[in-house]
Amino acid sequence: MKRIRLQEFRNDLEKYISVGEPFAVTHHGQTVGYFLPTHKKSEQIESLKIAAEKLDRLFVDRGITENELVEEFHQLQQEEKKSLLEVLSNLKDFEEDIGDIDEAL
Question: Which of 2, 56, 96, 100 could form a disulfide with 23 if both were Cys (CB 3.0 to 4.6 A apart)?
Protein backbone atom coordinates (compact mmCIF):
# COMPACT_ATOMS: atom_id res chain seq x y z
CA MET A 1 0.00 0.00 0.00
CA LYS A 2 1.26 3.45 -0.88
CA ARG A 3 2.30 5.69 2.03
CA ILE A 4 1.79 9.48 2.03
CA ARG A 5 3.22 11.87 4.62
CA LEU A 6 0.55 13.75 6.62
CA GLN A 7 1.94 17.15 5.60
CA GLU A 8 1.88 16.16 1.93
CA PHE A 9 -1.67 14.83 2.34
CA ARG A 10 -2.78 18.13 3.90
CA ASN A 11 -1.04 20.25 1.27
CA ASP A 12 -2.43 18.28 -1.67
CA LEU A 13 -5.76 17.23 -0.17
CA GLU A 14 -7.76 17.97 -3.31
CA LYS A 15 -5.40 15.84 -5.40
CA TYR A 16 -5.56 12.90 -2.99
CA ILE A 17 -9.33 13.04 -2.61
CA SER A 18 -9.62 12.35 -6.33
CA VAL A 19 -7.26 9.35 -6.14
CA GLY A 20 -9.05 6.05 -6.59
CA GLU A 21 -6.71 3.92 -4.49
CA PRO A 22 -6.46 3.72 -0.69
CA PHE A 23 -3.20 4.65 1.01
CA ALA A 24 -1.64 4.96 4.45
CA VAL A 25 -1.10 8.40 5.96
CA THR A 26 2.11 8.67 7.99
CA HIS A 27 3.48 11.13 10.53
CA HIS A 28 7.16 10.90 11.50
CA GLY A 29 7.33 7.54 9.73
CA GLN A 30 4.45 6.00 11.70
CA THR A 31 1.10 5.16 10.11
CA VAL A 32 -1.56 7.36 11.70
CA GLY A 33 -4.46 6.46 9.44
CA TYR A 34 -5.69 5.21 6.13
CA PHE A 35 -7.42 7.09 3.35
CA LEU A 36 -10.15 5.02 1.73
CA PRO A 37 -11.83 6.84 -1.15
CA THR A 38 -15.60 6.37 -1.19
CA HIS A 39 -16.13 6.94 -4.90
CA LYS A 40 -14.83 3.50 -5.83
CA LYS A 41 -16.67 0.90 -7.84
CA SER A 42 -19.39 -0.88 -5.91
CA GLU A 43 -17.53 -4.23 -5.92
CA GLN A 44 -14.49 -2.57 -4.37
CA ILE A 45 -16.65 -0.99 -1.67
CA GLU A 46 -18.25 -4.38 -1.06
CA SER A 47 -14.78 -5.93 -0.68
CA LEU A 48 -13.90 -3.32 1.97
CA LYS A 49 -17.16 -4.05 3.82
CA ILE A 50 -16.39 -7.77 3.78
CA ALA A 51 -12.89 -7.09 5.11
CA ALA A 52 -14.35 -4.95 7.92
CA GLU A 53 -16.81 -7.72 8.80
CA LYS A 54 -13.97 -10.26 8.91
CA LEU A 55 -12.01 -7.96 11.20
CA ASP A 56 -15.03 -7.58 13.49
CA ARG A 57 -15.42 -11.38 13.64
CA LEU A 58 -11.71 -11.75 14.39
CA PHE A 59 -12.11 -9.40 17.36
CA VAL A 60 -15.02 -11.49 18.64
CA ASP A 61 -13.23 -14.82 18.02
CA ARG A 62 -10.13 -13.62 19.88
CA GLY A 63 -12.19 -12.06 22.67
CA ILE A 64 -10.73 -8.58 22.31
CA THR A 65 -12.31 -5.20 21.84
CA GLU A 66 -11.18 -2.31 19.69
CA ASN A 67 -10.36 -0.38 22.87
CA GLU A 68 -8.13 -3.22 24.09
CA LEU A 69 -6.36 -3.28 20.74
CA VAL A 70 -5.80 0.47 20.87
CA GLU A 71 -4.54 0.24 24.46
CA GLU A 72 -2.10 -2.52 23.51
CA PHE A 73 -0.89 -0.40 20.59
CA HIS A 74 -0.28 2.55 22.95
CA GLN A 75 1.58 0.30 25.39
CA LEU A 76 3.81 -0.96 22.59
CA GLN A 77 4.50 2.62 21.54
CA GLN A 78 5.52 3.49 25.12
CA GLU A 79 7.79 0.43 25.31
CA GLU A 80 9.37 1.43 22.01
CA LYS A 81 9.99 4.96 23.33
CA LYS A 82 11.51 3.55 26.53
CA SER A 83 13.78 1.29 24.48
CA LEU A 84 14.87 4.21 22.35
CA LEU A 85 15.61 6.29 25.45
CA GLU A 86 17.68 3.40 26.86
CA VAL A 87 19.67 3.19 23.62
CA LEU A 88 20.28 6.93 23.67
CA SER A 89 21.33 6.78 27.33
CA ASN A 90 23.72 3.91 26.58
CA LEU A 91 25.12 5.86 23.64
CA LYS A 92 25.72 8.88 25.88
CA ASP A 93 27.51 6.63 28.41
CA PHE A 94 29.58 5.16 25.58
CA GLU A 95 30.52 8.63 24.32
CA GLU A 96 31.58 9.60 27.85
CA ASP A 97 33.72 6.43 28.11
CA ILE A 98 35.36 7.28 24.76
CA GLY A 99 36.03 10.80 26.05
CA ASP A 100 37.67 9.38 29.17
CA ILE A 101 39.86 7.11 27.02
CA ASP A 102 40.85 10.02 24.79
CA GLU A 103 41.85 12.07 27.84
CA ALA A 104 43.90 9.17 29.20
CA LEU A 105 45.79 8.86 25.93
Answer: 2
Q: Each residue of 19-33: pLDDT tens digit?
A: 778 899 999 999 999
The string of DSSP codes covering 18-83 is: T-SS-EEEEETTEEEEEE--SSS-HHHHHHHHHHHHHHHHHHHHHT--HHHHHHHHHHHHHHHHHH
CB–CB of 22/1 below 8 Å?
Answer: yes
- Pair 64, 42: CB distance under 8 Å: no
The pLDDT tens digits of the residues spanning 48-86 come to 888 889 988 888 898 988 888 888 888 888 888 888 888
Closest CA to 36 of 83, 78, 2: 2
Q: Which long-range contacts (CB under 8 A, 24 or more apart) does 6-15 make?
A: 6/32, 9/35
